Amino acid sequence: MIAAALTRKERIISVTGLGYTGLPLALAFARKFRVIGFDTNAERIRQMQQAIDPSHQLEPHDFANADIVFSADAEDLKQAHFHIVTVPTPVDALKNPDLSHLLEASAAVGAALKSGDYVVYESTVYPGCTEEDCLPVLERYSGLQVNRDFKLGYSPERINPGDRVRTLETIVKVVSGSDETALEDIAAVYEAVVSAGVHRAASIKVAEAAKVIENTQRDLNISLMNELSIIFDKMGIDTRAVLEAAGTKWNFLPFFPGLVGGHCISVDPYYLLHQSRKYGYEPQVILSGRRVNDAMPAHIAKRLVQLLIARGKNPSQCKVLVMGVTFKENVADIRNSKVAELVRELMQYSVAVHLVDPLASANEVAHEYKLSLLDAPGSQYDAVCVAVAHEAYRQWTLTDFKNIMTDSPVLFDLKGIFAPPNPSEGILYWRL
Fold first, then answer.
1. 73, 99, 201, 398: which could form a disulfide with 206 (CB 3.0–4.6 Å)?
2. Domains annotated on the chain, with CATH
3. What are the residue numbers of the active site?
4. Nearest to 10 by CA among 116, 105, 86, 120
5. What parts of the chain have a pLDDT lower than 70?
6. What is the pTM of this model?
7. Longest Cα pair distance anywhere in the chain, in angstroms?
8. Quick one: which of 382, 392, 265 has its CA closest to 335?
């Protein structure tokens, strides 16, 4: 069995793609097995060789006692026997699946494949992608045939960026294989590092579908909360108070309104949509949820401008501070940031916007969104919008906000992390 050979370190695991998913996975395996961590970004590799996580999720001690070699040379993949692919699977400008990273990785792994090897994909895809899109590339570049010469599998990633409690080891891992032998061998490898155990899916397509609906379900639940927040705002009702009251029933699900960005929840539904359309069905509920969530930056910007006007301010003469640009709290990842869209929406109203974030890279924000990230907040803001619930922002007090605001200011608390101030404080408070 491959797991036994890996345990004896007679065989090597490769992990291709060392981002938020790949690096923690590679290090987890490297505490038990020999690992080659491969990424095409040579600068990221250089940092990891110095025990630095370019994604700022892991500490230097997380690299300790890891039997791993980091490499940007695809030739090194030929040393491995159990290949795991964890590259990004984004969508393009038209919201269609972008498989370019996945197919490039498949070509690199395919060129390194040997008889007896295993290939397991972890990237989020639509049902059928592993066998219909990736497998032909593996076979073409290797000259080998699945199940006769090598085994194929899919095990969806379940990394939760910024979460130091629910880690890879503590989350049940879904695994699948191209045949029964592949399934059991792949399960045995993952069981060596995942203490929570594994779930053997009935097929690769089932495992792919399970992953893509996890985030689709969350997307739809959040879209409902966002739509409710719009309705209740028009009624003058505090949505958070409503959810707190409804949450006293045992079967009420704890979802909250907010901006839905990032590389998972705002992307995965489009992969399912893509494949559904290929089969002749136009989804209704999924599309509706996406429309609601995608429209939230414009809704929030409009409400902020309306409240500035209600305070007797001319939006074109106002200065607004937006706090946080990453897609979620306590991470540095800015992919698919809806905060960036919010900033652009505010700019459409000729509002002067300042943007800060203690974790995001100013260079990445400039490159990705053509926006400037300030080192620290300024002063004399007509409104402050706390867009991301970073731990650093949770420490702010009402006095901290007052010190950087003008008279009759507006405070937007998108994540509802602060208690509404007393009206006597002179701050108009709004939250989703």
1. 201
2. 2-212 (3.40.50.720), 295-430 (3.40.50.720)
3. 264
4. 116
5. 161-165
6. 0.90
7. 75
8. 265
